[in-house]
Amino acid sequence: MARFLVSGFAIALLLAAVANVCSAKSVMVGGRNQWSLGTNYASWAAGAGPFRIGDTLVFSYGGGRAGKAAAPHNVFLMKDQAHYRNCDFSGAVLLADPSKGTPGYKFTLKQKKAHYFACGVGNGFHCQSGMKFAVSPR
Ligand SMILES: [Cu+2]
Questions:
Q1: Which residues contact 123 (CB under 8 A, 6 or more apart)?
Q2: Edge-to-edge strands, sheet with 105-108
Q3: pLDDT tens sequence across 14-66
Q4: How far is the CA of 45 from the centre of ligand 1 (A)?
Q5: In whole angstroms, what is the distance from residue 127 CA to residue 123 CA?
Q6: Are 108 and 54 in contact (CB under 8 A)?
Q7: Is 106:58 a contact under the CB 8 Å cutoff?
Q8: Domains and CATH numbers, the chain
Q9: Which domain of life is it from (predicted)?
Q10: pLDDT in the model for residue 64
Q11: CB–CB of 89/83 below 8 Å?
Q12: Do residues 102 and 62 touch, judged by C-beta distance below 8 A?
């Protein structure tokens, strides 16, 4: 009986370890809408989280949907929260230009800090229209 308990415990530990390894997820930013104009990404991020270290964000844009012309987008990492809030791209880092949208730009969360993403197309217009979100992986 004790032996069964021990092996049961070992199996539980093994399952926990496997679940841990598999917990890193790949997330399509925006879900079905992908990375596009007209989606509120702050709301999307709130629903798609929580995010963890090791998770990968996939920014897919351009020619994704039938009947829609490929809109140019890009991906910037904003300098800080204030720049993010104001869609101020000074000091922002370009992560992916419009050509990276197909099949998609992948960003793996490696640091335990707030990451501020935004689209820089249209002199801040896309950002102000909602193409921005923050992620703080745990
Ligand atoms: Cu855009």
A1: none
A2: 26-28, 56-59, 105-108
A3: 555 555 555 799 999 999 999 999 999 999 999 999 999 999 999 999 754 44
A4: 16
A5: 9
A6: yes
A7: yes
A8: 24-135 (2.60.40.420)
A9: Eukaryota
A10: 44
A11: yes
A12: yes
How many whole angstroms from 8 Cα to the centroid of ligand 1? Answer: 52
Instruction: Evaluate if residue 67 carries a pLDDT over 50.
Output: no
Tokens of 35: 């990375």
Looking at the chain, list the stretches that DSSP marks H as alpha helix, in order from N- to C-terminal side. 2-22, 41-48, 81-86, 125-128
pTM: 0.80
**Phi, psi for 33 (deg, rounded to 5):** -75, -15
Q: For residue 131, report the distance from its CA to the centre of ligand 1, in Å.
A: 6
- Ligand 1 center from residue 54 Cα (angstroms): 25
Category of 69 on φ-ψ map: left (φ > 0), alpha (ψ -120 to 50) or beta: beta
User: How close is the Cα of 89 to the center of ligand 1, in Å?
Assistant: 13
User: What is the CA 8 to chain-centroid distance, rounded?
Assistant: 37
Closest residue by Cα to residue 37 from 114, 135, 122: 122
Q: How far is the CA of 101 from the centre of ligand 1 (A)?
A: 11
